[in-house]
Amino acid sequence: MQIEALNDWIETYKKPLVISGPCSVENEKQIRESVSPLVGKVDIIRGGIWKPRTRPGSFEGVGEKGLQWIKSLKEEVPFKFATEVATPEHIALALKYEVDMLWIGARTTVNPFNVSELASALEGVDIPVFVKNPIHPELSLWKGALERFSKAGITKLGAIHRGFHTYEKKKYRNAPFWQIPMELKSEFPTLPLICDPSHIGGTREAIEPLAQRALDLDYDGVMIEAHCDPSTALSDAQQQVSTSSLLEIISRLNPRDASFTEKTYLDQLEIIREQIDQADRELLEAIAVRMNLVEKIGEFKKENNVAIFQISRWKEIFKSRPNWGKQLNLDDEFIVDLLRLLHQQSVKKQTEVFNMIEEEQNHPND
Ligand code: PEP
Ligand code: MN
Questions:
Q1: 130 three-class SS
Q2: Which of 56, 82, 197, 247 is the Cys-Cys partner for 211 at CB 3.0 to 4.6 Å?
Q3: Are 303 and 157 within one domain?
Q4: Same domain, 51 and 79
Q5: Distance CA 104, CA 83 (A)
Q6: Domain for residue 108, yes or no?
Q7: How many CB atoms lie within 10 A of CB 248?
Q8: Is any atom of ligand 1 closer than 6 Å to the C-beta of 23?
Q9: Does the beta carbon of 202 lie inside 6 Å of ligand 1?
Q10: Nearest-angstrom CA–CA distance, 137 and 142
Q11: Residue from 171, 166, 190 nearest 2 by CA
């Protein structure tokens, strides 16, 4: 379905939209000291009131009293406030205390029952709702949640990319898999897309490069966790930046133009794109050469009654290629992912060869 969301509401903000504030609202002093330096410097202040924790026993948020603190702070210094809601009761309380924007957390987006309940609770309410990507890399659940809010009449919709959990630990706390939000964007081009580099990166150092990467990909904004004293934070302490670092980071971020208009730029872009087309053709030809060799080795193994999968060779490939890649300035994680894909296809091809020869033996005259 088409999402009835237009980005005109987000266009009232200067791009990039900056949402920042602590992971959690912890106490009155912490929230005052975290919010005050950011008022007027960021567009929306964030703060978790109810914290969805993976394991029990950690800080689960302060609940309703946090909303009271925010409301009275807003009376002193006006600002817009956003928080995560996961139940219809959270929504009722957020509306009661005039929260300005809501977001749906990654652990909620995965559950269509939960999302439907929240969408019903928001029917007829004119509030911006951001939907974080589901915990695991599944675009359809993300789209499904957005569609449910759209069907409930929410037009000020947006998506937040916070990365995806993978069982294997990689460079970041949550793998970005940039192609997933890009696919979402290509399907819903008017839907505002925000990057949450704090939950992708998991460390303070990772935030700025990730945020810039998102702007390079034409995201509409960023959501970054900032705390008055990050080392004492009750949740996500390693990834929160101090409010002063936050201000430095956003001053250094460099928003890009969405497209080229000037002819000279367009000509140069065209030249580089032609070179990329050529490089892709050569890449595909190289893969075809590799697949022909794979077919040959499949026939050889079959004739000599040798198993397709040879552990020592597999190990050797995964050891040498990332090193070769490094010499060419290629990221070794990327090379490993690429090799896995090639290896999977190679096993598939050799299995076909094995079956084909068997069939020929069974039906020699076919
Ligand atoms: C958060 O924003 O603090 C949070 C819990 O995020 P997520 O749903 O992305 O884990
Ligand atoms: Mn957090």
A1: strand
A2: 197
A3: no
A4: yes
A5: 9
A6: yes
A7: 11
A8: yes
A9: no
A10: 9
A11: 190
pTM for this one? 0.79
Ligand 1 proximity of 199 Cβ (cutoff 6 Å): yes
**Looking at the 3D structure of the chain, how many domains does it have?**
2
Could you list the residue range(s) of the whole structural domain that residue 117 is in? 7-252
189 upstream amide cis, omega within 30 of 0: no
Whose CA is closest to atom 3 on ligand 1? 23
Distance 83 CA to ligand 2 centre (A): 11
Residue 1 lies in a domain: no
CA–CA separation, 25 and 354 (whole Å): 61
Residues 6+ apart with CB under 8 A from 102: 82, 83, 84, 85, 91, 94, 122, 127, 128, 129, 130
> Does the C-beta of 173 come closer than 6 Å to ligand 1?
no
47 CB less than 6 Å from ligand 1? Answer: no
Can you give the CATH number for the domain in which 208 is found? 3.20.20.70
The proportion of the chain whose per-residue pLDDT surpasses 90, expressed as a percent, equals 76
Give the closest ligand to the alpha carbon of residue 86: 1
Report CA(336)–ligand 1 centroid distance (Å): 29
Last residue of a domain, one of 188, 219, 252: 252
**Claim to verify: residue 242 and residue 356 sit in the same structural domain:** no
153 by DSSP, 3-state: which?
coil
Q: Alpha-carbon distance 132 to 153, whole Å?
A: 18
Nearest to 117 by CA among 138, 88, 137: 88
Averaged pLDDT of the chain: 92
- Nearest 5°: the CA angle 287, 281, 354 is 25
- Strands 81-84, 241-242: pairing kind: unpaired
pLDDT tens per residue across span 5-21:
556 777 778 889 999 99
For residue 218, how far is its CA from the centre of ligand 1 (angstroms)? 22
Chosen domain end from 195, 219, 252: 252
- The stretch 41-62 carries a mean pLDDT of 93
Would you state the structure tokens that stand for residue 190, as one six-digit string?
Answer: 């008017």
**Is 257 part of a structural domain of the chain?**
no
- Same domain? 56 vs 128: yes
